[in-house]
């Protein structure tokens, strides 16, 4: 049995992650409500975006499952990389091993993989990238 790689498990996980981050006091203390899938052109710093996502089939013994690798990006223009690292720390504290409820799927695990910071070409913006791995199963 295979999953719909284009769809439902990935979107269910994205929605649950967004809701968890938007409802976390530690994250919102740093970025407010500025958590985006697609940031507006007049965005205020700092902000957090849902980044790249990769989904692979993780089905086993007739149970549809998916392995997800996802990135979140924080953009900052204050205090060098320190602000970006603070936001990534709050994101990690919120998401690593979180018990998220997904529509139509069960989250088996959600784990931190790695994080990095770098200065963007404009010389004023710092980007922090934090990556996670998740495994989900379709609820029958």
3D architecture notes:
By secondary structure, the protein is an alpha+beta fold. It has three helices and six strands; from the N terminus they run ααβββαβββ. The protein has a single domain, classed as STM4215-like (2-Layer Sandwich). A hairpin with a 2-residue loop joins strand 4 and strand 5. The model has no long low-confidence stretch (mean pLDDT about 95). The two termini are about 10 Å apart. A six-stranded mixed β-sheet has the order 1-2-3-6-5-4. The longest helix is centred in the first third of the chain and has 15 residues. Helix 2 packs antiparallel against helix 3.
If you consult CATH, what is the topology? STM4215-like
Count of spatially separate domains: 1
Uncertain spans, ≥5 residues at pLDDT below 50?
none
Mean pLDDT: 93
CATH class: Alpha Beta
Number of helices: 3
What structural category do the secondary elements indicate? alpha+beta
Rounded to an integer in angstroms, the radius of gyration calculated over CA atoms is 16 Å
Characterize the overall form. elongated
Largest sheet: 6 strands, mixed
Write the layout of secondary structure elements.
Elements: H1 8-22, H2 25-31, E1 35-36, E2 47-57, E3 65-76, H3 82-95, E4 101-102, E5 105-119, E6 126-138
Parallel strand pairs: 1-2
Antiparallel strand pairs: 2-3, 3-6, 4-5, 5-6
Helix pairs in contact: 2-3
